[in-house]
Amino acid sequence: MLPEIGHFALILALLLAAAQAFFGIAGPALARDRWLAAVGPAVTAQFVMLTASMGTLIAAFIGNDFSVAYVAQNSNSALPVV
Hints:
Blueprint: H1 2-29, H2 33-37, H3 39-62, H4 69-74
Helix pairs in contact: 1-3
């Protein structure tokens, strides 16, 4: 369940990055101040989504969740947490 939450958070971060790019470029070009004002909250939301995604990956490494391909390829149960 946790890896799916991290994957969903990454998808949301990608969509937020697309929204940032669109509103950050089109807002000033079309003189739409409300579009430009949407960039700041999108940056904050993208940071939160990326942090949540990294948190789930770290939790997968700590919990030795080998159902995640990245964890299975780069970790083993004999490795210390640090």
